């Protein structure tokens, strides 16, 4: 080893000590460990969420609902959270994938607060992780924190609906939100451009926070690609798990119309490839790390500022439906209590009446006894002179 | 038929109309024009406005003009009733087409009020006619603005009817002729469209929703056999899948109304691509008489009976549908400002 330089840093020898090998070691570790990725899809029914997931994973992870279940759901008026788990493996690398679906969101006449179950779920995952971290034994933590949330916007060609604005605001503040234009094959290219611009205008004006992938990268190629991806937000997608034949004989994944084939993996037709790249090929790690470092940390900080170590989270049920049910139950309870009280009161009355009656009888008997006693005395008094007389 | 001439908004003056005279599709009111009132209902972005423009073959409404500022995007706009009048000529018959558009329907977070507003609007028109009939001296220039047909635009989810679809059609089916229509139907492949239509009709049957189902005429009319067949065919096409025209291109010298995509061109008037042409024919030609007749003879008469016997409650109508006995049992009162 040569002597230290004037700046004070020890200078390594020409061969190096091997620190440069660290990335390879990391690669081996990560490859062995695999990773865990949670993706959430939010949007009204019929926007192609299930089809998109199945197209993305090239496998039918989520089965489409059958008609009877769907009809029943329409009358349900609730938003459910369904979790689908899968383990994907590609070239010896495995990913534990969780897909969270939200059927019922925005489907009803009254959609007030329909985003609350979604927001609650996201925060609950942070809470679960926080608690597990605080345990004495930290092995085997189950991490269901949502790394990315895709919000499916209906392609109405005009603007974001008030429901979309409010839901996205609430969700974007807590998780990586990626807006997506569903069923984009119903908008012509001009209309699509205008709609995208309009959506981004509203997102900016309403201060909705969406996921910003990092642009700058080591090589120009990546930077260019990142810029392409960012400029395509919100992503216009078409989903299809079926293979069809185009006019020029190619077999592609797409949707076959009488007037042509809309291809899923054609950049001229939709942004599916860009979104897939964002979610999996290029930015999955960034999604995971921003969730852990930024969103989760924010949650952790706010919670730890207001709560003592080990204290459970205060529960606030803002769900309108639950409140209504609570009210109804409370009413029933008070009514039942009233009924029982009435019953007891009546019973009490009866007992009192009974007691009075018995007392009266008792008194009567008592009087009778007294009477008889006095009669006996009277007779015995009257009888004693007779007795004296007889003895003489 | 007029071709797309790119004229601006049409401003037809108010027209004469006869309140109580029934119209048949052969009734030629050549000079004055047959008034026909259609209401378009559906969430924004389903192509209502484009449909109107396509139907009238001219730009009646500029769809792009009505933009809300981005800062206000989180506030739901209240529903409005917008009236447009266009003079049409169909098969030698002059029609005064009055269209009532309902922007803002279903766009809010809670849309419970929308149904009531539309119901009230329709009932007000009935009340006006009722008041007019009862006058000693009638106004010959009375304008009949009863809604003869209501086109309800269904979102092309591909699954089945949503709660808002069911509620609207259920509540208004007894007050007007409802014709369900699938908006933006070019987002469904032919197979998906067939399944979707089937599911919708199943839902409609299951919920007993009263829609206009092309009923066959009771008495013998001319062309009876044809009519029965035609009605059956139209019933099988319900709900009509429509696509709105965005541009007119030139194909072999003829102007063709289309929507262009990178993967192909949808022809609006092509029966293989959409049911628009058929629907247009039904509305303005083959069934215009039936729709007007049914509105006057059945729907209006029923409303009149209920109103005059003092048992027209607004809420009960929504719940009970077509059962006057149920209404009488409820015995609730309702007054609508005439």
TrEMBL record, chain A:
Entry keyword set: Cell cycle, Cell division, Coiled coil, GTP-binding, Nucleotide-binding
Compositionally skewed regions (Basic and acidic residues) per UniProt: 308-325
Annotated stretches, region: Disordered: 305-325
InterPro entries hit by this protein: G_SEPTIN_dom, P-loop_NTPase, Septin, Sigma_54_int_dom_ATP-bd_1
Gene3D superfamilies per UniProt: P-loop containing nucleotide triphosphate hydrolases
GTP-binding among keywords: yes
Single GO cellular component term: cleavage apparatus septin structure
Domain named Septin-type G: residues: 33-306
GO biological process terms on file: mitotic cytokinesis
One Gene Ontology molecular-function label: GTP binding
Any Pfam family the entry gives: Septin
Family statement drawn from the similarity comment of this UniProt entry: Belongs to the TRAFAC class TrmE-Era-EngA-EngB-Septin-like GTPase superfamily. Septin GTPase family.
Protein name listed in UniProt: Septin spn4
Organism per entry: Coemansia thaxteri
TrEMBL record, chain B:
Disordered: annotated span: 1-23
GO MF terms held by the record: GTP binding
Keywords associated with the record: Cell cycle, Cell division, Coiled coil, GTP-binding, Nucleotide-binding
Ranges where the Septin-type G domain occurs: 32-310
Gene3D superfamilies with a match to the protein in the record: P-loop containing nucleotide triphosphate hydrolases (3.40.50.300)
InterPro entries: G_SEPTIN_dom, P-loop_NTPase, Septin
GO cellular component, one term: septin complex
Keyword Cell membrane: no
GO biological process, one term: mitotic cytokinesis
Family in the record: Belongs to the TRAFAC class TrmE-Era-EngA-EngB-Septin-like GTPase superfamily. Septin GTPase family.
Protein name: Cell division control protein 11
Organism expressing this protein natively: Coemansia thaxteri
Gene: CDC11_1
């Amino acid at each position: 080893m040569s002597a230290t330089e004037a700046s004070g840093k020890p200078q390594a020898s020409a061969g190096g000590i091997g620190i440069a090998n660290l990335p390879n070691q990391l690669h081996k570790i990560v490859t062995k460990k695999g990773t865990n990725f949670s993706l959430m899809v939010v949007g009204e029914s019929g926007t192609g969420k299930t089809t998109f997931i199945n197209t993305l994973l090239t496998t039918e992870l989520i089965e489409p609902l059958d008609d009877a279940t769907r009809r029943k759901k329409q009358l349900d008026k609730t938003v459910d959270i369904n979790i689908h788990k899968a383990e994907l493996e590609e070239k010896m690398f495995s990913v534990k994938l969780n897909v969270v679906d939200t059927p019922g969101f925005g489907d009803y006449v009254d959609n007030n607060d329909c985003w609350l179950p979604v927001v609650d779920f996201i925060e609950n995952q942070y809470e679960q992780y926080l608690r597990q971290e605080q345990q004495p034994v930290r092995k085997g933590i189950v991490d269901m924190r949502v790394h990315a949330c895709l919000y499916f916007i209906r392609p109405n060609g005009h603007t974001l609906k008030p429901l979309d604005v409010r839901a996205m605001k609430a969700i974007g503040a807590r998780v990586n939100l990626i807006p997506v234009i569903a069923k984009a094959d119903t908008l012509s290219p001009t209309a699509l451009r205008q709609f995208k611009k309009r959506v981004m205008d509203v997102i900016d004006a309403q201060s909705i926070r969406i996921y910003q992938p990092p642009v700058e990268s080591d090589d120009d190629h990546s930077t260019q690609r990142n810029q392409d991806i960012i400029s395509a937000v919100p992503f216009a997608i078409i989903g299809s798990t079926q293979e069809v034949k185009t006019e020029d004989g190619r077999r592609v994944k797409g949707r076959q119309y009488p007037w042509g084939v809309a291809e899923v993996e054609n950049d001229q037709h939709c942004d599916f490839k860009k979104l897939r790249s964002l979610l999996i090929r290029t930015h999955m790690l960034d999604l995971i790390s921003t969730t852990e470092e930024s969103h989760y940390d924010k949650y952790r900080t706010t919670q730890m500022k207001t709560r003592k170590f080990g204290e459970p989270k205060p529960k606030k049920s803002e769900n309108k439906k639950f409140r209504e049910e609570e009210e109804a139950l409370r009413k029933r309870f008070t009514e039942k209590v009233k009924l029982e009280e009435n019953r007891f009161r009546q019973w009490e009355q009866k007992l009192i009446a009974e007691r009075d009656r018995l007392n009266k009888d008792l008194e009567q008997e008592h009087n009778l006894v007294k009477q008889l006693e006095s009669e006996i005395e009277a007779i015995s008094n009257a009888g004693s002179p007779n007795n004296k007389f007889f003895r003489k | 038929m007029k071709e797309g001439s790119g004229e601006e908004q049409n401003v037809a003056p108010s027209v004469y109309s006869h309140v109580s005279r029934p119209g048949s599709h052969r009734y030629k009111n050549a000079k004055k024009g047959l008034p026909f009132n259609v209401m378009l209902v559906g969430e924004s972005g389903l192509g209502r406005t484009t449909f109107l423009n396509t139907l009238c073959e001219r730009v009646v409404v500029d769809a792009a003009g009505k933009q809300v500022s981005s800062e206000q995007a989180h506030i739901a706009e209240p529903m409005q009733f917008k009236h447009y009048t266009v003079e049409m000529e169909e098969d030698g018959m002059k029609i005064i087409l009055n269209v009532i558009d309902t922007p803002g329907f279903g766009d809010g977070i809670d849309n419970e009020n929308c149904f009531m507003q539309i119901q009230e609007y329709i009932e007000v028109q009935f009340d006006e006619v009722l008041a007019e009939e009862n006058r000693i001296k009638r106004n010959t220039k009375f304008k009949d603005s009863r809604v003869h047909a209501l086109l309800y635009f269904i979102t092309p989810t591909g699954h089945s009817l949503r709660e808002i679809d069911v509620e609207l059609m259920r509540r208004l089916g007894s007050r007007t002729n409802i014709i369900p229509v699938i908006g933006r139907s070019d987002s469904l492949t032919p197979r998906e469209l067939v399944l979707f239509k089937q599911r919708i009709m199943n839902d409609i049957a299951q919920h007993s929703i009263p829609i206009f189902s092309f009923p066959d005429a009771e008495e013998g009319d001319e062309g009876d056999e044809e009519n029965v067949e035609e009605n059956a065919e139209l019933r099988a096409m319900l709900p009509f899948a429509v696509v709105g025209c965005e541009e007119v291109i030139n194909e072999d010298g003829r102007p063709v109304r289309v929507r262009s995509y990178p993967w192909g061109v949808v022809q609006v008037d092509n029966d293989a691509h959409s049911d628009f042409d058929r629907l247009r024919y039904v509305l303005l030609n083959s069934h215009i008489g039936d729709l007007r007749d049914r509105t006057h003879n059945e729907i209006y008469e029923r409303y009149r009976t209920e109103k005059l016997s003092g048992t027209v409650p607004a809420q009960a109508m929504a719940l009970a549908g077509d059962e006057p006995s149920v209404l009488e049992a409820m015995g609730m009162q309702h007054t609508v400002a005439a």
